[in-house]
Write a sequence for this structure.
């Protein structure tokens, strides 16, 4: 089912359609007026020859220098109307394209902001409510050691979820404020192992397979930025994968680059039509009101911006038999 067009899009279409029709009408009127001007000028010329007692037939009249001047002026006016009409039409078409694109972007941005507010409300409310319930349970009930450890473990998982959310929000704000990477030697293997350990706090049943060549040399990168790239790609893969489906992270050396990082999952995959939009801020696939997975739409945006500021590239393709593969080259 196609989404309904917004009132702004309808209004823009109506105004621009009126402009096109109005321009076409004026162009036709100018063309006709030029023809009428030629006819009137010819009549004046005929009257002049009659006053001079020269009765010329139509063929002889067309051979006169005065008629040729009138015809040349008529042709110049036609060329002017045609060329200016083509130029104005191209300008109008470009204006239509710009306005419609701006309108579509505004509508999409408003929808993404609404989705972000819905998702951020859920992201903040759920762990806060869970931690509050855990603290109230510990305060009001006498619990044994095992129960306390279980409640504390759940609270740590919710706290880690909140910490990740806050880190993403702060990093997204910094990326808009001319954030620049601070390169230093970074042990990629250690970063990935730390990210896997953090992910398993939030996804206890996660199955992550790591493939890194032995003695892989450190790379020059921003440590926090690289950690955010790995963490967001890993969390994104785990969120959309079944609990029993492994997520594979691999690092390989790349000629002309420092490395190629690949994160492959066996989740639901990404439709081809949305692969170019997933790196936009606040963009999430599907409807926010019916979506089952958590998130704010900032993770892949942060990844793409950090990779870009490092001078690298990121791409996404289908995994087989199902899922998605993200490839980062630095």
């Amino acid at each position: 089912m196609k989404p309904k067009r917004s009132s702004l899009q309808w209004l823009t279409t109506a105004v621009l359609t009126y402009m096109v029709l109005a321009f076409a009408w004026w162009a036709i009127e100018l063309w006709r007026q030029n023809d009428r001007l030629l006819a009137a000028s010819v009549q004046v010329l005929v009257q002049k020859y009659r006053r001079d007692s020269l009765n010329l037939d139509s063929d002889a009249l067309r051979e006169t220098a005065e008629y040729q001047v009138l015809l040349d002026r008529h042709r110049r006016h036609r060329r002017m109307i045609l060329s200016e009409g083509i130029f104005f039409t191209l300008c109008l078409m470009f204006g239509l394209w710009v306005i419609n694109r701006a309108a579509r972007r505004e509508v999409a941005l408003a929808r993404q902001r609404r989705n972000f507010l819905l998702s951020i409300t859920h992201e903040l409310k759920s762990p806060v409510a869970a931690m509050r319930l855990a603290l109230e349970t510990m305060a009001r009930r006498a619990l044994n050691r095992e129960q306390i450890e279980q409640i504390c473990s759940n609270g740590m998982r919710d706290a880690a979820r909140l910490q990740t959310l806050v880190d993403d929000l702060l990093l997204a704000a910094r990326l808009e404020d001319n954030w620049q990477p601070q390169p230093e030697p970074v042990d990629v293997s250690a970063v990935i192992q730390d990210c896997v350990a953090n992910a398993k706090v939030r996804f206890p049943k996660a199955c992550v397979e790591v493939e890194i060549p032995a003695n892989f040399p450190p790379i020059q990168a921003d440590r926090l930025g690289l950690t955010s790239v790995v963490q967001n790609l890993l969390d994104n893969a785990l969120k959309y994968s079944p609990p029993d489906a492994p997520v594979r992270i691999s690092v390989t050396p790349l000629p002309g680059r420092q490395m190629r990082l690949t994160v492959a999952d066996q989740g639901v995959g990404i439709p081809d039509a949305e692969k170019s939009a997933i790196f936009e801020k606040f963009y999430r696939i599907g409807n926010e009101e019916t979506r089952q997975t958590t998130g704010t739409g900032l993770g892949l945006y942060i990844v793409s911006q950090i990779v870009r500021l490092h001078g690298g590239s990121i791409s996404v393709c289908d995994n087989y038999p199902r899922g998605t593969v993200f490839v980062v080259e630095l």
Summary: Residues 184-329 form a domain with the Heat Shock Protein 90 fold (CATH 3.30.565.10). The chain has a mean pLDDT of 82.
